[in-house]
Model the fold of this input.
Amino acid sequence: MTAGTSGGARFSDAELGYLLGERRLGRLATADASGQPHVVPVGWAYNAELGTIDVTGRRFAATRKYRDVQANPRAAFVVDDVLPPWRPRSVVVQGDAEPVEPADGEALIRIHPRTIVSWGLDG
Done:
């Protein structure tokens, strides 16, 4: 993990290598205004221009996770897997989540990393 210049965090080369591999499913944890947690599998992409994780889906603005982020901007995101016989690997991102409704296209949740923790990425 490398600290960013604006109080955030940047992904290391090993973390980006892992994320930009074949992993397309992550898990997004949000909480509503009362703090009730909600964790779901999601599609996502790395936004290299902003250094963020962008989470998307069909009719995304109508989902609970989108409403949660509107009420409570704190979120966590994880991508993980296990190599045989037992070698877990993971990148965990905690940060500020921003609901984005572009003028043309599907709504998304943009996660601005504050903390990035990873393990098992060494060969």
Summary: The longest helix spans residues 64-71. The chain has two helices and eight strands. Residues 2-119 form a domain with the Pnp Oxidase; Chain A fold (CATH 2.30.110.10). The longest strand covers residues 87-100.
